[in-house]
């Protein structure tokens, strides 16, 4: 088990927008990723976020996740 605070939360709001939720308080369906770049690669390859949200995930979301995860892994 991984502590929830150590995970990155990605949320689907009621308008259908997919956002990274740093506070963990956004309303809507959410998916969590561990804070390693290999987790993001695995999620992209397996289309885990797409399955969780039952829709395609824009490339911008993956770019934002790459930036966030590269910062959190290096510190």
Question: What report would you give on this structure?
Answer:
With 75 residues, this protein is an alpha+beta fold. 43% of the residues lie in helices and 20% in strands. The chain has 3 helices and 3 strands; from the N terminus they run βββααα. Strands 2-1-3 form a 3-stranded antiparallel sheet. A hairpin with a 5-residue loop joins β1 and β2. The longest helix is centred in the C-terminal third of the chain and has 16 residues. The protein is globular and about 30 Å long. The model has no long low-confidence stretch (mean pLDDT 90).
What is the beta-strand fraction?
15-25%
Radius of gyration: 12 Å
Instruction: Tell me the number of helical segments per DSSP (H or I, 4 or more residues long).
Output: 3
Order of helices and strands: EEEHHH
Q: Looking at the structure, what is the overall shape?
A: globular
Structural category: alpha+beta
Helix content percent band: 40-55%
- The tally of beta strands, per DSSP, is 3
Helices and strands in order:
Elements: E1 7-12, E2 18-20, E3 29-34, H1 37-46, H2 48-53, H3 59-74
Antiparallel strand pairs: 1-2, 1-3
Descriptive tags:
3 helices, 3-stranded antiparallel beta sheet, 75 residues
Structure summarized in a few sentences:
The protein is α+β, with helices and mostly antiparallel strands and about 80 residues long. It contains three helices and three strands.
